[in-house]
Amino acid sequence: MTSVVGPDFIVIGAPKAGTTALHAALTQHPEVRMSQPKEPKYWLCDDAPPPAYRGPGDAHSQQEWLWRREDYERLFADPAEGVVQGESTPFYLWHRASHRRIAEALPDVKLIAVVRDPIDRAYSNWMHLWSDGLEPVADFEEAFALQDRRIADGWAPFWRYRDLGRYGAQLDHLHRFVDPERVLVLRYRAIVDDPAAAVDRTCRFLGITPGLVDSIPRDNSHPFVEPGLRPRVLGPVVRAGAALGQFVPPQVWRRASVPLIAQLTGSAAAHRPLLPPEARERLIPHFAEDIAQLSEVTGESFDDWLSTASRGSFTQRTQVTRS
After folding, report:
1. For the segment 185-216, what is each residue's pLDDT rounded down to a tens digit?
2. Roughly what angle, to the nearest 10 degrees, separates helices 118-131 and 250-265?
3. How far apart are CA 21 and CA 18, in angstroms?
4. Helices and strands (H, E) in the chain, number of each type
């Protein structure tokens, strides 16, 4: 692939690991211009339309993918002196073909990978889709076990609750194409525990002035929807609406879905319950080998992810940090 007019840096992953919060924090920096839309998804494609994914809501969301080179280049066509440009598509870290495409077309780009306990990440991923009315399975572990069947049925990447959290293999593959010196691995817990330090570390990596952003906005956490009558009745309506949404501009269904999802959520902005220790114990074997590989690739220990203790949502964790 020939060189592309593109960003100076990309936040490449992982989904539900704090990328939205980091993107929002960097948007506040006077020496940064972040793309609109936040997630162009260009490098998931190969200058061709995205695959025709068939999961709930997939066809609608694919309308927002930028797959034409000229559309992607337009996002970064007017660089300003002293300003770095970036985008955030959290699926690039998982998507192996993106690694080669980015390396070939953007040989000097810097990449930021935000990683989170893979079980907490998967649980948050499931809860996001469940609370939006798209996930039809009310039990997280049951939905987690359906990944391979859903892949075979052509569901989009966001439904890969297991594979999106295998960062060790992902980073190992990325380093074959991109110099590790141009890859920053940032932990989700750093964003939660010391947001100013996390942003400053990112700024130093990007070569811009630290100390100008001292907070990270709340990430895109969703209120928890209790299983019961409301999701049984409204969930199918949301999924049917999302399917029909593929035939209209994306903003039409997004506006129409707001009152439906509000009814689904209800008036109580409840936090999702912590995942029980016994559930984490059952899920740890899916990630233990990859966690060891991640430690080897980064030189940093991630053994705390082998714990049976759940850590909660962004809001729950920040409340603990501040107390």
Report:
1. 999 999 999 999 999 999 999 999 999 998 88
2. 100
3. 5
4. 15, 5
In Å, what is the CA distance from 64 to each residue of 58, 202, 302, 323?
A: 11, 28, 35, 40
How far is residue 24's CA from residue 216's CA, in Å, rounded to a whole number? 7
Per-residue model confidence as pLDDT tens digits over 62-107: 888 999 999 999 999 988 899 999 999 999 999 999 999 999 999 9
Our measurement of the distance from residue 290's CA atom to the centroid of its chain's CA atoms, rounded to an integer in Å, reads 19
Query: Which amino acid is residue 72, in one-letter code?
Result: Y
d(CA 41, CA 65): 6
Q: What is the mean pLDDT of residues 293-317?
A: 86
pTM comes to 0.87
Cα three-residue angle 200-206-207, rounded to 5 degrees: 90
Q: What is the DSSP letter of 165?
A: G
Residue keyed to tokens 């079980």: 119
Give the whole-angstrom CA distance, residue 312 versus residue 276: 11
Q: Cβ–Cβ contacts within 10 Å for residue 276, how many? A: 12
Please state, in angstroms and rounded to a whole number, the distance separating the CA atoms of residues 246 and 62: 8
Q: Is 92 helix (H, G, I), strand (E, B) or coil?
A: coil
